[in-house]
Amino acid sequence: MLQRLVRESGFAGNFSFSVTQDTALFCAAPKEWILREGDRPNRLYYLVQGRVKLSQTLPNGKIFALDFLQAPCFLGELELLKPGRTAIAAQAVSCCRLLALDLGRCRARLLADPVFLLRLCRILAEKERRRARALAQAQTYPLSNRLAFYILMAAQGDWYQERNIDACQYLGVSYRHLQQTLGEFVRRGWLQKRQRGYLLADRAALETQAQELREDWAEALR
Prior knowledge:
The chain has 222 residues and is α+β, with helices and mostly antiparallel strands. The protein is built from eight helices and eleven strands. The chain has helices at 2-9, 77-81, 103-111, 114-140, 143-154, 164-171, 175-187, 203-220; strands spanning 23-28, 33-35, 43-49, 51-57, 63-70, 73-75, 89-92, 96-102, 159-160, 191-194, 197-200. Strands 1-8-3-6 form a four-stranded antiparallel beta sheet. A hairpin with a 2-residue loop joins strand 10 and strand 11 (197-200).
């Protein structure tokens, strides 16, 4: 499986030297931590299947959801560039498969590899564009569009179980406004409130509500 994922994901094309012998396969179940704040990571991860949530703890102790990433992408690249403790945590949203590169054996070669460094610059630039786009969308699109987009990003299968306070922080809205919009989604039959969270009762309607944002993201990242 490792060899197949390396081949099919194009992982080896990110480097000018062979990394296969220093790469291991790592699997993460939904809600499992891939990177924890405060850890000293010794691996560079490449997500080949699944979705991941990035988060950070604020000085007041609150956890802030920064972004949702989907395959393919690197995780832990900031810790590679600036060795130290992890500042941004990564948690699996769905079942994930990752290729884990041993930094103890490869760090020096990675930091001297022009092919990898160029790829890394493009990745970091794309993440910055995503953040800028998210700020622009917060001022442009109604909450109903942005919430539908967020629910689809954060959902685990047919279940949405994110804490409302996390959604408020990510979307930049008040708790009351979020509750009102969630209630409207329930009244429309798009969501069903259950004890364990919300069931995506009409995914197609949510997809339609989020479609304009999806197209906006796609256009911005071309």
